[in-house]
Amino acid sequence: MIYKVITKKEFKKFINGLIASNETFGPKQVDKDKNGKPIYQFREVHSFNEMDLDYTLTYSSLKNFFLPFRETLSRYSYSGDDWKQEIEYRVNPRVIVGVRACDINALCKLDDIFIHGTFPSPYYITRRKNTFLIGLDHIPLEDCFCESLGQLDVRCGFNLFCTDIGDRYYLSINSSKAFNFLRNVKTSDPTQSDDKKWIERKKFIKKSFKTHVEVNALPNLLDIEFESPIWKKWGDKCLNCGTCAMVCPTCYCYGIEETIAVSLKSSRKERFQYSCTLVDFAEVAGGHNFRPFKEDRLKYRFYHHYHGFAENANKQICVGCNRCGRACLAGINPKDVINDLILERADEV
Amino acid sequence: MKYKIPKQDINLKPFMSRPPRFNLKNVIMRTDMVYKCEIINIIELTEIEKLFHLKILDEAERQIFDFRPGQFVMLEVPGFGEIPISIASSSNNKEFIALCIRKVGRVTDMLHQARKGARVGIRGPFGTSFPMEEMVGHNILLIAGGLGLAPLRAPLYWINERRDEYKDVYLLYGTKDPASMLFTYQYDGWEKVNNIKLFTIVDKGDKNWKGRIGLITELFQEITIVPDNTYAIVCGPPIMFKFVCDRLDAAGIPMNRMFVSLERRMHCGMGKCCRCMVGSTFTCVDGPVFDYWSVLNLKEAI
Prior knowledge:
Structural class of chain B: alpha/beta
Strand content of chain A: 15-25%
Largest interface: A-B, 71 and 58 residues
Number of helices of chain B: 6
Shape of chain B: globular
Order of helices and strands of chain A: EHEEEEEHHEEEHHHHHEEHHH
Structural class of chain A: alpha/beta
Number of domains of chain B: 2
Shape of chain A: globular
Radius of gyration of chain B: 21 Å
Distance between the termini of chain A: 48 Å
CATH architecture of the largest domain in chain B: 3-Layer(aba) Sandwich
Mean pLDDT of chain B: 93
Mean pLDDT of chain A: 92
Helix content of chain B: 10-25%
Oligomer: heterodimer
Largest sheet of chain A: 7 strands, mixed
Order of helices and strands of chain B: EEHEEEHEEHEHEEEHEEEEH
């Protein structure tokens, strides 16, 4: 990786250059929550000033830029007794500015599945390859716990990452594209004092975490506590609405459905985001449901996130952004569930 | 332009004009492209089950399609949906593949209305298979319940085509009632031509039924299992696995010689949609054929 330093003024010029030439998305305040706090989302922007780069965290994750809530996989057109299938991958170069480390790390986890998995997904790959990602560090919220999961630093999956060192940004340049674009503006090589500021900033962010979750023993503990009563306790609270999976940056489970056009001349095969907490997630034809109870389904979401699945070498996929905890209508958040799980054993000892 | 992101158009890549090869792993291809098939024959097995013979129309795709006993395909009825179905024909048969389908949902209802000549799509083969080569020189115990006989038809064909390589082969088959027995027209051939020891049992008989009545586990009383020389394959409804596997385990068959073929909901067949997850893995890529150790190790497998 190559490192440079850029003044905030030059950075603005750089971003405006990108905005002028490409479809660009950035964090914007879209609403306020019930306590009057701003709600942010990634929206299309037309100038640097439209963005709130001091934003906390977007309500939804970046995932849906790569795995849209609904996308067409293929089309069938009928003629006589025959039909024809067509597949086209949507290519749409774009820039996303101000992405937090958790979102970038989440994309790396999705890459493991959709690029490096058994069957790479061309739909995902084309979106990923045509997206220019600019990351930006931030001071964690009170309930962020990415540090506990080792997801505080970014090492891959982005083009450019900016660390705020006061009046300037310390840039980690991770692609030739980013390097070339930066030739259009003034940057300088970091001095020793810049390096020091960078280290101080990192330390400061690390120290700012107020929420810690113990996740190291979790894969084993999830196996050991598979029958634990705590699943019933939390399962009873769960409303099975699927909100957690929708806002999560790594939940990727989906469903496929086909619809015939009103003209009866064609049909569409679509992929749509789904959630393992929804009641029919594992129901098979004939009516047998492999996970009929709420606690089974809630448990499975935790099992996937903190135990990991074989498709990505059993790595935990949670990045600790706590979006699910904030969005949950029933007040279930991963920290409490995990602590409960750990404490359940501790009480017996 | 100085800041223009170059367009990387995947649609121009060579793989776009090639048929997908589902036997290859970690290769980029049009994984959602189906092989177009024609239904060349439909055999009515019971009131709700039919056997469909599908022929892949494109010569090149037919050559590519190569499966092993135990694998499945995703069967596409354009406009209605896609379903996972185990292949119920011989892996040597390059002319057509046979799929045994119960009328049970939206896609299968539609299929049951289809006539000869109708065109559907398949993707596959997907999933793991039975280790047929490893079983050479051993006794084989095939245990099927209801529709579970369909996935066992492929290993059975494999064995019958090389019958002298295997020792005693038992087929234990149980159904709800005599009317739901599948492939009855083949029983004579299996027993007399292929020397398969076939035992059938039904939960509830009818006035013409002269055979055994009871649960499938009762058939174990009629056979002698030589545990250190037997491989077992089990396939049936979820409720059956536990009881049958417990019996096999008690009989002393080693864990790595007992195989089950599991059923789960599936949307993609490629380890992505997570609908078929069992324990920490997927039925579509690490299954549907699991050995008994995996079954014990993976949560909620049986």
